[in-house]
Write a structure and sequence with these properties.
The complex is a heterodimer of chains A (600) and B (167). Chain A is built from 23 helices and 4 strands. Chain A has 600 residues and is mostly helical. The longest helix of chain A has 39 residues. Chain B is globular. Chain B: It catalyses: S-ubiquitinyl-[E1 ubiquitin-activating enzyme]-L-cysteine + [E2 ubiquitin-conjugating enzyme]-L-cysteine = [E1 ubiquitin-activating enzyme]-L-cysteine + S-ubiquitinyl-[E2 ubiquitin-conjugating enzyme]-L-cysteine.
C-alpha cells in the first residue's frame, strides 16, 4: 500500500512558488545590505567558505560611506555570492524566472495546452531529467558542486528549448489538421521556432566557449545536443514552410493542373528531405551515445546499461528507416519500369479523378488492370500494399520479382511500427508514494510511434495501464479509465477509485448497469418492460419539428466553416426529430390498429 | 502528409453534404480538428434497428486515405459486429496488412478508393445483416442466432433510447 498521509500532498502551485521565491530573495538581499553597512565587511571573514573562490578575489575596495548605486549593487552581489544560502536562493529565483518565462511563452504562443500535449510534455520532461541525471552523475561523474550547477543550468536551458521545440512540433501537426487556422497562430508559432533555432546558435557559441576551457570531450557532449536541437527545429520549420506554401497555393489556385504538377514533382523531394532529417538526427544521437559509452569508463555500471539500451533502440530505428527506404526505392523503380504513364487519349477517356486523392489527373500512371492514378499517390499506396486500389488485382503476380525482393515483413511495416510492443526498461511509479510524483519509465521504444497516434491522446504506458484496469472492470469504457489514470497515474489508485465508486461509467453505460453490477448489460436490457402497445402514445407530441429551413439544409456547402458547422448541427437535429416523429406516429398507428381489432 | 488528407476529407465532406445518401449525415464536429467526424446513421427499414438514429465517431489517421479511419458508436449498441464499447468491426475498416480475425480475404479490406460514404453504407448493411461468424460481441452473436425475438426486443429498446423516448 502506498503511504497514505502523503497521498494527497499538493504540489505547490506556481503563484505560491514564485511568491516564496521572491520573498526569499528579498530576505537575502536585505541580509546582504545589512552586512555591507558595517565597515570592514569585505575582509576575509567567517563567510569566506568555498564559494568565495568565484568572486572574492575580484575586489577589495571597502568604502562603507558614499557608495554609488552601482557599487552598492555589486557589493550586495559579492556578499550574496559568498553566502551558500543566498546562492541557493538565487539559483531558485533563476529557476522561478525560467518557469515563469516558459509559462509566458506558453500563454503567448500556444494558449491552453491540449491534454495530449500536456501528457507528452510531462513524459518528455521526466525522461529528459532522467537521462541527464544519468549523464551528469553516471558518465561525467562530476565531483564539485559548481560543476553540477553549471551542467544543471546548461541542461535546463537545453531542456527548455527541446521541450518548446517538441511542443511546437505537436502543435504544428495539430494545426495542419484544420482548414481554418487563423493567420496569427501560424506567425506566432513560426516566430517561436525561429527563436529556438537562433538560440540554438547561441548555445553553440556557448559550447565552443566552454569547450575551450573544458576540453574537446566536453565540447562534443554539448555540441551534439545543440546540433540535435537545431536539426529538429529546422526540420519542423521547413515542414511548416511547405505546409504554409501548400495552403497558400490552395487558396489562390484551387487544384489547377499547375498545382498537381508541382505536387507530383515534390513527392520525392519531400520524401528525401524527411528521410534526410530523420536519419541525420538518429545518427547524431547514435554517435553521441557511442561517445558517452566509449569515453567514460563506465562499463559494467548501471549508466552503461542505460546507454546500451538506448544505443540498441537507436540502431534498430536506423535499420528500420533504411529498410523502409530500400522498399521505397524498389517500389519506385518497379513502378517506373513496369507501369507506363498514361497517354493523352487514355486520360481523356478516363474523366474520373484520381481515386486516391480525389483530385484532377493530368498526368497518371496506368496499372496493367487499366486503372489510372497519380504517380505519388500510387507510390505511397504500393509501399504498403501490392494490389490495385480499385480492383484489388495483385500486382506481383505479373512480376514474380516483387516477392523475392520484398521480404514479407516489409509489406506490413507501416502497420507494424505503430503497434510495436513497448518494452519498459525501467519504470518508476512515483504516484504510489505521493500523488504528484511523476511516474516515468525509460522506454526503449519508438517515441515517435506514440506521436503518430496523437489523436488518441494516450501514450503506451497509459494505454497498457488502462487495459490492465479494464480486464478487471470490463463494464467501464477505456476512455473513462484513461481519464482517471491521467490523474492518478497508478493502476492501484484507479482500481481503488472504481471500487469506492468514485469512478463510474458514463450515463449511457451506467443506466444499463443499475440492476446488474457485473456489467452484463444484456441482462438489464432483457428485464421485462411494459409492452409497447399498452403505452399511451398520444402523450408524445410530435409537432415540435421545425420545418422552416429543411429545404435549404440539404443542398448547400457553405464556404465558411462556422456556417458549415451550424448547418451540419441543424441537419443532425432535424434528422433525429424526423426519426422520432416517424417512430411515434408508427407506434400510434400500430396502437390504434390493435384497439380496432380488439373492438371489432 | 496531412495536407492531402485534409483536401480529400474536405472533398468527401462536400460530397456528403451535397448528395447525402438516404438516412446518413456525417461531418467534422468541430472544424478545428477536421480528422474527427461524427456520423448519424438511420437504422435500415425492415430490420430490428428500424427508425433509430445511431451516432458514431470517426477518427481519421494523418495518412488517410492510405490507412482506414476508426469508427465507434457513441450510443449504446448491441450487435454481433460491434464491441461493447461501440467500436465497429467490419472488414472494410481493416488495413490490408492485418487480419485480427483471420478470416477475411484482402479484397474486402481497406483500400484508398473506399470512402466515408462507403463505410457508412456498409455499416448500414451490417446493421441489417449481422455477420455472426465474426464475433465482436459474442453474447449478441449468440442471441442473434438462437433467440432472435429477444435480440429484436433489445434492439427496439436501443432504438428508443437513441430517439430520446423513454423505454
Amino acid at each position: 500500500m502506498p503511504v497514505v498521509p502523503l497521498e494527497r500532498l499538493p504540489l505547490p502551485n506556481l503563484k505560491v512558488y514564485s511568491f516564496v521565491s521572491v520573498v526569499a530573495l528579498s530576505a537575502c538581499i536585505y541580509y546582504a545590505a545589512q552586512i555591507i553597512k558595517e565597515p570592514n565587511w569585505n575582509y576575509p571573514t567567517e563567510f569566506d567558505k568555498k564559494d568565495s573562490g568565484n568572486a572574492a578575489g575580484a575586489r577589495n575596495t571597502t568604502d562603507a560611506d558614499g557608495r554609488t548605486v552601482g557599487q552598492f549593487v555589486s557589493d550586495v552581489f559579492t556578499v550574496m555570492i559568498r553566502e551558500p544560502v543566498c546562492v541557493w536562493t538565487m539559483i531558485n529565483m533563476a529557476f522561478c524566472w525560467f518557469i515563469l518565462l516558459g509559462r509566458a511563452v506558453q500563454k503567448l504562443v500556444f494558449g491552453d495546452l491540449r491534454v495530449s500535449e500536456q501528457q507528452q510534455l510531462r513524459d518528455k520532461f521526466w525522461n529528459f531529467v532522467f537521462y541527464k541525471f544519468i549523464f551528469v552523475f553516471g558518465i561525467i561523474n562530476v565531483q564539485y558542486i559548481d560543476e553540477v550547477l553549471l551542467w544543471c543550468s546548461w541542461f535546463s536551458l537545453l531542456g527548455f528549448l527541446h521541450l518548446l521545440s517538441q511542443l511546437s512540433k505537436d502543435r504544428f501537426e495539430y494545426l495542419s489538421f484544420s482548414p481554418r487556422t487563423p493567420f496569427w497562430s501560424h506567425v506566432k508559432l513560426m516566430a517561436l521556432l525561429a527563436a529556438i533555432f537562433a538560440l540554438s546558435g547561441f548555445m553553440f557559441v556557448v559550447s565552443i566557449f566552454v569547450g575551450f576551457f573544458g576540453g574537446l570531450n566536453t565540447f562534443f557532449f554539448m555540441f551534439y545536443e545543440v546540433l540535435l536541437l537545431a536539426i529538429r527545429t529546422l526540420h519542423v520549420i521547413i515542414r511548416y514552410a511547405f505546409h504554409l506554401y501548400d495552403i497558400r497555393n490552395e487558396s489562390t489556385t484551387p487544384a489547377t493542373s499547375e498545382e498537381s504538377r508541382t505536387l507530383d514533382k515534390r513527392g520525392p523531394v519531400s520524401y528525401y528531405f524527411e528521410l534526410g532529417f530523420d536519419l541525420t538526427a538518429l545518427i547524431i544521437d547514435l554517435i553521441h551515445h557511442l561517445h558517452m559509452l566509449l569515453w567514460s569508463n563506465i562499463f559494467l555500471s548501471m549508466a552503461s546499461l542505460v546507454i546500451c539500451m538506448q544505443l540498441r533502440f537507436l540502431f534498430h530505428e536506423i535499420q528500420r528507416k533504411y529498410k523502409k527506404h530500400r522498399n521505397y526505392l524498389w517500389v519506385r523503380n518497379h513502378l517506373e519500369q513496369n507501369y507506363p504513364m498514361a497517354t493523352k487519349t487514355e486520360l481523356q477517356e478516363n474523366s474520373d479523378n484520381c481515386a486516391i486523392c480525389w483530385e484532377n489527373m493530368d498526368a497518371a500512371r496506368k496499372l496493367p488492370c487499366g486503372h489510372l492514378f497519380h504517380n505519388t499517390c500510387l507510390l505511397s499506396w504500393l509501399e504498403q500494399d501490392t494490389s490495385c486500389p480499385t480492383c484489388r488485382m495483385t500486382l506481383n503476380i505479373q512480376n514474380p520479382s516483387v516477392t523475392s525482393l520484398e521480404p514479407p515483413e516489409l509489406q506490413a511495416d507501416p502497420q507494424e511500427n505503430t503497434r510495436r510492443p513497448f518494452n519498459h526498461f525501467f519504470h518508476f511509479d512515483g504516484s504510489r508514494y505521493v500523488s504528484w510524483l511523476p511516474s516515468f519509465s525509460v522506454e526503449v521504444s519508438h517515441v515517435q510511434a506514440i506521436r503518430q497516434n496523437h489523436m488518441a491522446a494516450t501514450n503506451s504506458q497509459l494505454d497498457a495501464m488502462a487495459r490492465q484496469v479494464q480486464t478487471l472492470f470490463p463494464h467501464i469504457p477505456l476512455s473513462t479509465i484513461i481519464e482517471d489514470l491521467r490523474v492518478t497515474r497508478s493502476v492501484e489508485l484507479t482500481v481503488e477509485n472504481v471500487l469506492d465508486g468514485r469512478l463510474v461509467a458514463p450515463p449511457m453505460f451506467r443506466d444499463l448497469n443499475l440492476d446488474e453490477p457485473t456489467g452484463r448489460h444484456t441482462l438489464s436490457l432483457l428485464s421485462t418492460e411494459p409492452e409497447p402497445s399498452s403505452r399511451n402514445w398520444d402523450e408524445f407530441n410530435t409537432d415540435s419539428v421545425e420545418t422552416e429551413d429543411t429545404v435549404t439544409l440539404g443542398s448547400r456547402f457553405s464556404k465558411s466553416s462556422t456556417e458549415r458547422e451550424k448547418i451540419l448541427h441543424k441537419r443532425k437535429e432535424h434528422m433525429i426529430q424526423q426519426a422520432r416523429k416517424r417512430y411515434i406516429e408508427k407506434q400510434k398507428a400500430a396502437a390504434t390498429a390493435v384497439r380496432c381489432e380488439l373492438q371489432s | 502528409m496531412a495536407g492531402s488528407a485534409l483536401r480529400r476529407l474536405m472533398a468527401e465532406y462536400k460530397q456528403l453534404t451535397l448528395n447525402p445518401p438516404e438516412g446518413i449525415i456525417a461531418g467534422p464536429i468541430n472544424e478545428e480538428n477536421f480528422f474527427e467526424w461524427e456520423a448519424l446513421i438511420t437504422g435500415p427499414e425492415g430490420t430490428c434497428f428500424e427508425g433509430g438514429v445511431f451516432p458514431a465517431k470517426l477518427v481519421f489517421p494523418a495518412d488517410y486515405p492510405l490507412s482506414p479511419p476508426k469508427m465507434q458508436f457513441t450510443c449504446e449498441m448491441f450487435h454481433p459486429n460491434i464491441y461493447s464499447d461501440g467500436r465497429v468491426c467490419i472488414s472494410i475498416l481493416h488495413a490490408p496488412g492485418d487480419d485480427p480475425m483471420g478470416y477475411e480475404s484482402s479484397a474486402e479490406r481497406w483500400s484508398p478508393v473506399q470512402s466515408v460514404e462507403k463505410i457508412l453504407l456498409s455499416v448500414v448493411s451490417m446493421l441489417a445483416e449481422p455477420n455472426d461468424e465474426s464475433g465482436a460481441n459474442v453474447d449478441a452473436a449468440k442471441m442473434w442466432r438462437e433467440h432472435r425475438d429477444e435480440f429484436n426486443r433489445i434492439a427496439e429498446k436501443i432504438v428508443r433510447r437513441t430517439l430520446g423516448i423513454p423505454t
